[in-house]
Amino acid sequence: MQKIHAAITAVGGYTPDYILTNHELETMVDTNDEWITTRTGIKERRILKGEGLATSDMAVPAVNELLKKRGISAEEIELIIFCTVTPDMPFPATANILADKIGAKNAWGFDLSAACSGFIFGLTTGAQFIESGKHKKVLVVGGDKMSSIINYEDRTTCIIFGDGCGAVLLEPTTENEGVLDSVLYSDGSGRDLLNIRAGGSLRPASHETVDAKEHFTYQEGKTVFKFAVTNMADAAAEIMERNNLTADDVAWLVPHQANKRIIDATANRMGVSSDKVMINIDHFGNTTAGTIPLCLWEWENRLKKGDNIILAAFGGGFTWGAVYLKWAYTL
Ligand code: UT7
Questions:
Q1: Among 31, 100, 115, 183, fewest CB within 10 Å belongs to which?
Q2: Nearest CA to ligand 1 atom 22
Q3: How far is CA 163 from the centre of its chain?
Q4: Ligand 1: does its nearest atom lie under 6 Å from the Cβ of 265?
């Protein structure tokens, strides 16, 4: 019997209209455009404004675009994996809320929490359901409303993050394409370096946790940077070696967008030139689980059937890894 692979057959994306520029941030905290640009590569990021709007509200247009492109109805979706650290609520899962909002009446779903590695963890998980023959249409969504967990008085984090959401559809193929390999890692000993301290069962919400601003993202940037540079580059190099890929074989590197300097280090380690690296950090910032699917969304027109693509990520947890993907269609 021929092996079944999980191919990405459609991509959708959504970013909010409001643009938070470095210059506006200069009026909010003690920072400047030059520092942000040279240290991170970010010029602006999108923010979801408006009462009653949550992460699922960015996923709805992203998924509706994807369904329209593929020419299928939401009722054909069998599984939704929603990768996010900013669920609409602690429970139920945002996957359930999204299913209800788009009318995916025949889908089951769950949320996947792996911070900035969320999308590559979700893509690998979704691919298993296709490869096993269990499902034929799996939606993997990566998105975060980071502005809901950012302290806009903390210049070390508020300059980095933005809001956005991307989604891909996975379907079976017997061709040698789609998700071909992945290397994924977790190390919980890094949990104190990048996290949200309160709001979970360890430190439930209280006046004290609110006053101490413990419901916002906390990051020891410099230390996280060192782990991110090493581990993201190592994972990308590892997946190339495992699959006998040279830099010439790689059509595109799609890195998580945490810091342009981390992206450059990963590309250097792989020997991949900058024209093959997808970058959206300059205009979207770090959208956490949204960075990689949003890159695929923006670059979709330029991707060709058979392109070898390496996805790589590092994030809170710590979590990190890389995925080897062969693109399955040309628009
Ligand atoms: O996405 C998931 C994983 N996350 C990451 O991979 C992020 C990894 N970390 C980073 O990207 C970087 O560490 C940051 C962008 C967060 C910070 O850049 P850095 O080059 O590591 O800066 P730093 O923390 O070493 O700070 C350097 C200086 C400090 O001043 P002193 O002590 O040298 O006087 C900071 O206080 O820059 C100062 N600083 C700022 N200055 C202007 C910190 N934040 C700002 C700011 N504007 N926003």
A1: 100
A2: 222
A3: 11
A4: no
